[in-house]
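so my prof wants the structure for this chain in the tokens format not the other one, which i didnt know existed until like an hour ago. anyway here's the sequence
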Amino acid sequence: MNILISADYGAQTSGNFIASLIELGELIKAKGDNVVYAFPKPLTKIDYPWLNWFKRLGFETVLVDYYDTTSDMILNQLSDIVSKYNINLIHTHFSMFRDVLIKNRSKFKKLSIVVHDHMDFNVYQSDKIQRVKFAVLSLLYRALNINVITVMSFKKSTYTFLKNKCWHIPNGISLKRNVDVSETREDCRKRLGIKDNDVLCLVLGWDTKRKGIDIAMKAVTKYQQDTKHPMILGVVGFSSSPSKNQLDTLSQLSGINADNPHIKYLDNCEDMYAYHRASDVYLSSSRKEAFSYGLLEAISQEKPIAVSDISGTTWSHEYTNCFVYPVEDAEACAKTLYKAYSESKPETNSAILLGKYDINKWCEKVYNVYKKVK
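here's what i got, hopefully its the right format
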């Protein structure tokens, strides 16, 4: 097989997603097949740092003029890639090329297509409306012979008309990152200015409402008021210097002054494992969540986790040091953070859980889908 893996991924840091694609590529090559990667060309003149990671490993990557261009231009570029590399299967992430493939399916009749659905339902529409939309989408996919991999088990049932063309494959965790040496807990805390007696609660917050950052802010404020313990909320997703508009939005949503000493904004970084080691508890305050890389990473470092009781994160309840609270309840979240920090056990079942979501198992499952659709 000649496989094109495409992803509308424009972050400067690679994270678990890019690491997973690299591990998948290594398996594809080991099976005797070929793989090419396609990503959108950066809007700035600075290339993604992680592109060199692919090049070092001998993988072919193509950057596509994808933003601020026409669908015809995107179609022409995709056609060139398919022709040049004799592609017979495309595995698309975050909808890259999806719309062009749907509109021009007849031009790619011999091309097998796998759409990877990484998302939960959104927080802006009712679940009922979204189920209807996915049922309609699945009917379109069936008519066009398009296959789906979804990271969430319930999502499989929403693709109503894809009973034999939709697979549920939860994410896997890769321990690879595009760093030479990972920082120790002590070095990372020193760099971030976290005192020895500060309790650092880490939360990932690229989407304020979906990730419940307002809940996290209220919970940490309540924690400090009730326990008198110094807790720092470390928020990754707004850079270390959020804009005034971002701070105003956070303040408005939470009712808490976002420019507050006990809230520290952290830059995105390649070495997320160092952030997890530097923290004392990881908080998943999400209102909606698909399959969280952040939770897997925290568990890999044996950190206690406080988790909202939404369907997308129930898999993490198997972890010994998982503490659950009702979503939207900031007061309960504060109490759960205290329990997670003070009652977590030194011995965990993290190895068992990580074995369940081992990246090698994920790669094999994805590759098996390739074989079935071909």
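also thought this was worth mentioning. The mean pLDDT is 94.
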